[in-house]
Fold this protein.
Amino acid sequence: MAFDKFSGDPSASRFRSLPKLNVLTMFRLGLFQMGLGIMSLLTLGVLNRVMIKELAIPATIVAGTIAMNQFVAPVRVLFGQMSDAKPIGGYHRTSYVWIGALLFTVASFLAVQVVWQLGASFQLSGWSGQTIAWVGLLALVFALYGVAISFSSTPFAALLVDISDEDDRSKLVGVVWSMLMVGIIIGAIITARLLRTVNLDTPLDVLQAAVNRIFLIVPGIVLLLAIVATVGVERKYSRYGQRSAVVDREDQITLGRALKVLTASRQTGLFFVFLLMMTLSLFFQEPVLEPYGGEVFGMSIAQTTQLNAFWGLGTLFGLSLTGFLIVPRLGKQRTTRIGCALVAASFVLLILAGFTANPGMLKGTLLLFGLASGVTTTGALSLMLDLTAAETAGTFIGAWGLSQALARATATVAGGAVLDIGRSLFGVPMLAYGLVFLMPVIGMAVAIVFLNRVDVKEFQTEARSAVARVLETELD
């Protein structure tokens, strides 16, 4: 297809000089990620802890139901392709972000209500048919929650590709994902304050009222943040129209054709597996961190929730430092490799902290773990945004999101399952948790092996050739 086919377009606006992103806009975009951080804390922090500790539901069941929001991750590829090809209200990304945000905030409140019903049924009749039905319904609600998250977050990540250039992406990633950690910290502080009157002896009805209040107020704030973060950004900064040779014929970029571009390079598979192992290792601790603090360190529900603030603070510092200082000096791939090694070392320290049963050492270790996570995340996400093709940016982002979501889902289930296995093998809480934290050390070693084989230049060359073949053979 000849590019000059579009030169007669009376709307020359898509060839205008577009402004570069400024830091203020980067921080505004980060408000969306901040909201996701808050929601993550509510589901994997508060609900996870309440179901395991207060409602005494087995960790494997809890992890399995929550993980359903990640197991629906294949829809990310579909939603990414839809945002490439089917604008809503004239926008390729923004409308998807807003609709998805509305849906996942509503779904989160519904999930809490099902949790109370599940807990009541389990306490009353054990594993009866009714209890199993509530488990199934909770899994369904979390699946719908995950679909809504995907509908919102995948186009948002594609928007970051559309509005940025290669030389400023590490800064954009550093700022936007730093705000994710800010959300986790803010969520931890707000939750701790709202639950400050709740302790191990608090009656269940009092706990239920407190948690309901949180899930009514906070998701509403998150929805507002999503709107403020993205309003006007796509119209002002998006380069999609200039980069895509098919901008005027989006309806012909089908999912099947987008997948041909996606699978054209072997680098896609290598990076997919790297992301899978890296993310799996990073989040293996997520479903067991709060119970770890409660069982091994004797911390209250408010204190274990605050553990996320230490991890988040370290990650915040790591993201900011890496995006502006480390990546520009060492490069994206080398930075990511160093980060993976540091994460593995942090998990070793996390095991050692448990043998001391010293909450101070646990908090310090989580701070270091957060720092290492920040370095790894910035490097990996910067690579991820480079590994896209302009015409199918949403599809590529969907694929990378699929890898990460599958990893987080697996980590959520596997973390809880390994904990249960460790308990049955050792009968000692510390050894059981130590077994959980050993898994990411091995996982990061595997991730580094795949990272060493990733070649961005090879990917970009092969992706451009694939796009050209698709356009020549199927769009003309």
